[in-house]
C-alpha cells in the first residue's frame, strides 16, 4: 500500500506525491462502497488541492527529511498495542454490509423514506446535507471559513511587517 | 514555466471545461453526486491551475485577493442569511418551508440551492485564499533546485 | 462442524474491513509518533483521518445496496436497497474541513520554519532550550544587579 511507502521514503517531494496517489486510490475504494459523493470530494480535494498545498509548503521549507535520531522501537510498541486494542474492540461489531446493524436501523431508513415526499430531491445525500442537517453544514462552512482566516493571519501578515522594517532601514 | 508551450495550451483548454464542470456540479447537485463542497473545490482548482502554469500575478489580475476574501465571507453570510430570512418569515431557523409557504417542497428546493451556493462560494474563496497565501511568500529555494 | 466453519469464515470476512482500516490508521499513527519531520507528521495525520473516513463509509454500506440517489423521475422502486446516506453526509463535510485544517497546519509549519530555520522536531526543541537558557541568564543578571 502507498501508506507504507510514505513511511519509508525520506524525500518529502515523493511523500507529497504519494499522498496524492493515496487519496486517489481511497476515492476508488469509496466508489466501491457506494459513496459516490464522498469519492468525488476525496478525488478533487486529495488529489488536487492538498498536493498543491503540500508542494507549496515544501517550496517554502525544505525538501528532505533528516534520518530520525531516536530508535523507532517505542513508537512501534505503542502503535501495536493501540492496534491490538482496536482489533479487540471490533470483535463485537456487526458484519460488513449487515442490513440489521444498529447504524442502519435508526435514522437512516427514516431519511430515505421521508425525503422523496418532503424534499423531493433525487440525491438523498444533498437532501440531508442541506436540509435535515442544515445546522451541521452551516457549522462546517463556518469552520472552513475560520481556517481560511487563520491561514491568512498566519502567513500573509508578516510580509507587510517586513516591508515596513525595510522602509525603516 | 514560461517555456512549457504544450502545458500552457492544454491548460487554456482545460480551464474553461473545469469551470463549467464546477457550475454543473454546483447546480446539478440535487440530481447527481455533487453539491456545494465539491463544486467549490473544483472551481478553486480551476484558478489554482491557472496560477501554477502561468503566474501568481496573472491569476491575481483575473481574481484579485480582495474579491476572494469578500467572496469567502459572502458565502457564509448567504447561508446564515437564508436562515435569518426564514426566521423573519415566522418559521424556525433554516426551515426552508418559509421560502414558499404554499408549496413546502418548492421551498425546500429553493433553500437547498441557496444554501449550496453559499457553501460553494465559501469553499472556493477559502481554497483560493489559502493558495494565494502559500504562493505569495517568497520561496527560500528557487525553481532550479527541484 | 461445517456450519461452525462457515460462520467463522463469515465472521472473518465481515470484520476484514475493520482490520484493514485499523492497519491503515496505525500506519498513520506511527508516522505521527515516530517521525521528527513536521510535514511528514501532517501526512501521517491525513492518513489517519482517511482511515477514519473509510471506517465510517464502510459502516454505512448495506449488502446489495446501491448509491443513495433516486432515479431522476422519482419513480422509486421499493425493492431497491440504498446504502446509508448519513455517514456519507458527515464524511463529505469532514473531508473539506480536513483539508482546510491541514492547510492551517502547513501554514503553522511555514511560520515555524521562518522563525527557527528548521522543520525537524528535535532541532526545534534544541533551539527552544537555548533560547530559554539565554532568557534565564539574562533575567538572573538583571536580578543580580538589582540585589
From TrEMBL, chain B:
The chain crosses the membrane at residues 5-25, 37-59, 71-91, 111-134. The keyword DNA damage does not apply. Residues 6-129 form the Na+/H+ antiporter MnhB subunit-related protein domain. Its main location: membrane. It comes from the Bacteria. It is a multi-pass membrane protein. It is found in: Cell membrane. Pfam families: MnhB. Keywords: Cell membrane, Membrane, Transmembrane, Transmembrane helix. InterPro entries: CPA3_antiporter_subunitB (IPR050622), MnhB (IPR007182). NCBIfam families: PRK12508.1. Belongs to the CPA3 antiporters (TC 2.A.63) subunit B family. PANTHER family: NA(+)/H(+) ANTIPORTER SUBUNIT B, NA(+)_H(+) ANTIPORTER SUBUNIT B. This is Na(+)/H(+) antiporter subunit B. It comes from Sedimentitalea xiamensis.
TrEMBL record, chain C:
It comes from the Bacteria. Pfam families: Oxidored_q2 (PF00420). Keywords: Cell membrane, Membrane, Transmembrane, Transmembrane helix. It is found in: Cell membrane. It is a multi-pass membrane protein. The chain crosses the membrane at residues 16-33, 42-59, 89-110. InterPro entries: CPA3_antiporter_subunitC, NUOK/Mnh_C1-like. NCBIfam families: PRK07375.1-6 (NF005621), PRK07375.2-3 (NF005624). Belongs to the CPA3 antiporters (TC 2.A.63) subunit C family. PANTHER family: ANTIPORTER SUBUNIT MNHC2-RELATED (PTHR34583). This is Cation:proton antiporter subunit C. It comes from Sedimentitalea xiamensis. The lineage of its organism: Bacteria, Pseudomonadati, Pseudomonadota, Alphaproteobacteria, Rhodobacterales.
Amino acid at each position: 500500500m502507498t501508506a507504507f511507502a510514505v513511511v519509508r521514503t525520506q524525500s518529502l517531494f515523493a511523500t507529497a506525491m504519494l499522498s496524492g496517489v493515496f487519496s486517489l486510490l481511497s476515492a476508488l475504494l469509496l466508489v466501491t462502497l457506494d459513496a459516490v459523493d464522498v469519492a468525488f470530494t476525496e478525488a478533487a480535494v486529495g488529489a488536487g488541492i492538498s498536493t498543491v498545498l503540500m508542494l507549496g509548503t515544501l517550496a517554502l521549507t525544505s525538501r528532505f527529511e533528516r534520518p530520525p535520531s531516536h530508535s523507532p522501537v517505542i513508537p512501534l510498541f505503542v502503535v501495536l498495542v493501540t492496534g491490538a486494542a482496536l482489533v479487540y474492540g471490533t470483535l463485537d461489531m456487526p458484519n460488513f454490509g449487515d442490513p440489521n446493524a444498529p447504524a442502519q436501523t435508526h435514522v437512516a431508513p427514516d431519511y430515505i423514506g421521508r425525503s422523496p415526499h418532503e424534499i423531493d430531491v433525487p440525491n438523498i445525500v444533498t437532501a440531508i446535507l442541506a436540509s435535515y442537517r442544515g445546522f451541521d453544514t452551516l457549522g462546517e462552512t463556518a469552520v472552513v471559513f475560520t481556517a481560511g482566516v487563520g491561514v491568512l493571519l498566519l502567513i500573509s501578515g508578516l510580509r507587510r511587517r517586513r516591508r515596513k522594517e525595510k522602509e525603516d532601514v | 514555466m514560461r517555456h512549457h508551450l504544450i502545458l500552457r495550451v492544454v491548460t487554456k483548454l482545460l480551464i474553461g471545461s473545469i469551470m463549467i464542470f464546477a457550475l454543473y456540479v454546483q447546480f446539478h447537485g440535487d440530481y447527481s453526486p455533487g453539491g456545494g463542497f465539491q463544486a467549490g473545490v473544483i472551481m478553486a482548482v480551476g484558478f489554482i491551475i491557472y496560477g501554477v502554469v502561468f503566474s501568481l500575478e496573472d491569476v491575481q489580475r483575473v481574481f484579485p485577493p480582495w474579491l476572494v476574501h469578500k467572496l469567502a465571507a459572502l458565502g457564509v453570510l448567504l447561508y446564515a442569511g437564508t436562515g435569518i430570512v426564514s426566521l423573519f418569515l415566522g418559521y424556525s431557523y433554516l426551515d426552508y418551508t418559509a421560502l414558499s409557504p404554499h408549496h413546502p417542497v418548492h421551498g425546500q428546493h429553493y433553500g437547498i440551492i441557496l444554501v449550496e451556493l453559499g457553501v460553494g462560494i465559501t469553499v472556493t474563496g477559502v481554497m483560493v485564499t489559502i493558495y494565494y497565501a502559500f504562493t505569495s511568500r517568497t520561496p527560500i529555494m528557487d525553481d532550479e533546485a527541484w | 462442524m461445517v456450519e461452525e466453519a462457515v460462520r467463522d469464515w463469515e465472521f472473518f470476512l465481515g470484520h476484514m474491513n475493520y482490520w484493514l482500516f485499523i492497519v491503515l490508521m496505525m500506519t498513520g499513527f506511527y508516522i505521527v509518533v515516530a517521525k521528527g519531520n513536521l510535514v511528514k507528521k501532517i501526512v501521517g495525520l491525513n492518513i489517519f483521518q482517511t482511515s477514519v473516513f473509510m471506517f465510517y463509509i464502510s459502516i454505512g454500506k448495506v449488502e446489495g445496496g446501491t448509491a443513495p440517489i433516486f432515479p431522476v423521475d422519482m419513480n422509486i422502486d421499493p425493492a431497491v436497497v440504498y446504502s446509508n446516506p448519513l455517514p456519507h453526509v458527515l464524511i463529505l463535510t469532514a473531508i473539506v474541513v480536513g483539508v482546510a485544517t491541514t492547510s492551517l497546519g502547513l501554514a503553522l509549519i511555514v511560520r515555524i520554519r521562518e522563525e527557527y530555520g528548521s522543520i525537524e522536531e528535535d532541532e526545534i526543541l534544541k533551539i527552544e532550550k537555548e533560547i530559554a537558557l539565554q532568557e534565564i541568564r539574562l533575567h538572573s543578571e538583571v536580578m543580580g544587579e538589582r540585589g
